[in-house]
Amino acid sequence: MPNRLAAETSPYLRQHADNPVDWHPWGPDALSLAREGNKPILLSIGYSACHWCHVMAHESFEDPEVAAEMNRHFVNIKVDREERPDLDQIYQTAHAMLTQRSGGWPLTLFLMPDGTPFFGGTYFPKRARHGMAGFLDLLPRVAEAYRDKRDEIARQNTALLDALAQTLPAAAGGEELTRAPLDAAVREFARVFDDVHGGIGQAPKFPHPFELAFCLRRHALDGGELSLSIARLTLAKMAEGGICDQLGGGFCRYSVDPYWSIPHFEKMLYDNAALIALYSDAWLVTRQPLFEETVRGIARWVLREMQAPEGGYYSSLDADSEHEEGKYYVWTPEEVKGLLTADEYAVVEPRYGLDGAPNFESREWHLRVMKPLEVIARRLDVSAAECAARLESARGKLFAARERRVRPGRDDKVLASWNAMMVRGLARAARVFGEGAWLASARRALAFMRATLWRDGRLLATCKDGVAHLNAYLDDHAFLLDALLEVMQCEFREDDLRFAQELAELLLDQFEDRAAGGFFFVSHDHEPLIHRGKPGHDNATPSGNGIAALALQRLGHLIGEPRYLAAAERALRLFYPHLERQPSAFVSLATALDEYLAPPPIVVLRGEAGALAEWQRALAAGYRPDTLVVAIPAGQPGLPQVLDKTAPAAGINAWVCRGAACLPAIGELAELERTL
Questions:
Q1: Looking at residue 418, what is its pLDDT?
Q2: What is the pLDDT averaged over residues 111-117?
Q3: Which of 205, 553, 662, 673 could disulfide-link 568, Cβ–Cβ 3.0 to 4.6 Å?
Q4: What percentage of the chain exceeds 90 in pLDDT?
Q5: Strands 602-607 and 628-633
Q6: Predicted local confidence at residue 422, as pLDDT
Q7: pLDDT at 1 over 70
Q8: Cα–Cα distance between 370 and 355 in angstroms, integer?
């Protein structure tokens, strides 16, 4: 009989609905059951695309013997970390404090009935092996400790809650904000940059898109080659590596090796949202064809596989298919040869390394670029164009064959924060490459969010099958505000501006710490938890505090609203000591600091719609990361003062403004470009 997870919106929770474990979703019913029964809570946090979550599920949660022990001793709660990042943040931090080790998923914690954790780990095998405790042996020992060591646990809990409270940044001092962290961040990246294979740090290698975007920005605004070389080499190696799907487009979450060859095969929406914007900007700086090809590959994947008919974007694709990680993606030379002509195979074999040793578990090949097409063309004595045509034909055949395999599972819930990131990413790419279909896709997702996740003036965090719920978090509001600012630069609509203002007001009303500055991760009316965090550092997604500060500043300058600028400044002052100590971990806040020190130029274009589009295309051809361009056709009433410029009777006028000060109107595109 299905347990209580069958009615949940999370596909991850539904995957566990037929477990013999008596699972509960997080909520008042489960917490009351633990209190009333004086039983500890076994909290398991994971997500749908997580390989080791599936492994632990198959080994333990589907096993009647293990389930019986879990049900006997604990109230068992299963959480999707993507729907409940508030819980995941708290308990990952607590795990690190309890174990002095980094966390991950699945996260397995044992809690007191009040929610305070007293023991835990990540993945546990059913039976002890390789130095890891066996889950089946662990369960009764934890239950015994709960019964017999209450005083010891109580002392530990007090210390843990005190330590969690200490993670909140101290109230801001009065020190001067300077650009020193901006320069120091690049130096920190340079120290850990792999100048052979690209990447920030060593294996496992993550893309670090926000750090690379910061490097591009520093190159554009400060000059110098160091920051550009970090971004350019890393992006090229990633695009040619196995972390990038060479047939279907899009990126996996990380590479297990230092060469970007073999990924952890799950594909996440948020990674690709950040990377499509980053590769678009990198193309503007370098004009490398590889970067444009990579952008187009991500866009094809998103529109083909990740957008729901209703408009929202799905969350992720699993690493596994048929219970094997990577099975959907890997090949043998014999398979490939059987699908292609001899001429096509002559290109594909050296291009993707099929003439070398297998690179996946010593028996199969995962495709990554091994030789440049120019080298292959010379070896085959054919033109570069002929070589490229053979490769394109072969890729089409291989992709079609792969589509007939058993596909990885897809987590088809729609998350507000990740959707906002993809709206921003596709809008940014559409502006750079002039692709109307990409902007239309972003607008469909934005319309879905307005219709489904925006209810009674409040934002909801997640939706599946038309059911939207959960209070939205800081990231949902900040990322959506940031996305709207990007969409308005593609195509100005007054309704988008109003929505942006509503989100900004919610950030101030529901999330800002009015006493100390900065923004809490959960709203003032969120359910009480054991800790209320105020994170400032970037992770796999950017810091909500950093994006809130950046977007509020930009909107504040755009509409002339000093309250938004003041809230952003309070956040920057709160986190500035952290920026000074470790700026490379806070690049979103560092970017907001950059625009606090030098407010962004705002270019207001007014005139006839067709001519406006021509000027927008021209301005989009240059990489100006600190500049906002808003083109408003004639006849728009009720605009804020900064935007309320008189449209000329004929032609285009442009105003370049910083804060409340604007230069005289400019009527020639060439003069505007010189001014910028």
A1: 98
A2: 97
A3: 553
A4: 94
A5: parallel
A6: 99
A7: no
A8: 10
Contact present, 34 and 76 (Cβ < 8 Å): no
Question: Omega into 640 within 30° of 0, i.e. cis?
Answer: no
Q: Interior CA angle at 424 toward 635 and 368, to 5°?
A: 145
**What beta strand segments (E) does 429-531 contain?**
454-455, 458-464, 467-471
Asked whether the bond before 106 is cis by omega within 30 degrees of 0, the reply is yes
Residue 364 near residue 358, CB atoms below 8 Å = yes
Which range, of 110-119, 164-173, 467-476, averages the lowest pLDDT? 164-173
CA distance linking residue 13 with residue 176, whole number of Å:
48
68 pLDDT above the threshold of 80? yes
Task: Please give the pLDDT value at position 248.
Answer: 98
Summarised one tens digit per residue, pLDDT across range 317-341 is: 999 999 899 999 999 999 999 999 9
Judge contact between 196 and 594, C-beta under 8 A. no
Helix, strand or coil for residue 618?
A: helix
Residue 179, pLDDT above cutoff 90? yes
- Antiparallel, parallel or unpaired: β 414-415 and 458-464: antiparallel
DSSP 368-436: ---S-HHHHHHHHT--HHHHHHHHHHHHHHHHHHHHTSPPPPEE--EEHHHHHHHHHHHHHHHHHHT-H
Residues 6+ apart with CB under 8 A from 644: none
Residue where the block lists tokens 């900065």: 518
What single string gives the DSSP state of each residue in 161-230?
HHHHHHTSPPPP--PPP-SHHHHHHHHHHHHHB-TTT--BSSSSBP--HHHHHHHHHHHHHH--SHHHHH
The answer to whether residue 244 scores a pLDDT higher than 80 is yes
Burial label for 411, CB within 10 Å (0-12, 13-18, 19+), is: buried
- Reading the block at residue 326, the tokens are 């990577």
The 3-state secondary structure of 293-355, one letter per residue: HHHHHHHHHHHHHHECCCCCECCEECCEECCEECCCCCECHHHHHHHCCHHHHHHHHHHCCCC
Which burial class, exposed, middle or buried, applies to 19 when counting CB atoms under 10 A from its CB (0-12, 13-18, 19+)? buried
CA triple 286-249-381, angle to 5 deg: 70
For tokens 């599946």, name the residue: 464
Angle between the N-to-C axes of helices 416-433 and 269-286, in degrees from 0 to 180, rounded to the nearest 10: 20
Q: Phi, psi at residue 250, to the nearest 5°?
A: 90, 165
Nearest residue to 320 via CA among 16, 54, 15: 54
C-alpha to C-alpha distance for 658 and 599, rounded to whole angstroms: 6
Residue 173 has a pLDDT of: 75
Q: What is the reported pTM?
A: 0.97
| Structure-token match 């605004």, residue found | 221
Closest alpha carbon to 230 in 275, 292, 277, 186:
186
Q: If DSSP codes are grouped into helix, strand and coil, which group holds residue 521?
A: coil
Instruction: Report the alpha-carbon distance of residue 661 to residue 676 in Å, rounded.
Output: 15
Distance (Å, whole) CA 113 – CA 154 = 12
Structure token pair of residue 417: 């924060």
Separation CA 485–CA 482 (nearest Å)? 5
Sign of CA dihedral 510, 511, 512, 515: positive
Q: Which of 123, 8, 99, 73 is nearest to 413 (CA)?
A: 8
| CA–CA–CA angle 655, 661, 664 (5° rounding) | 40
- Over 70: is that where the pLDDT of 378 sits? yes
Write phi, then psi, for 330 (nearest 5 degrees).
Answer: -95, 160
Interacting residues of 590 by C-beta distance below 8 A, sequence separation 6+: 181, 182, 185, 214, 546, 579, 583
Structure confidence by residue, pLDDT tens digits, 415-463: 999 999 999 999 999 999 999 999 999 999 999 999 999 999 999 999 9
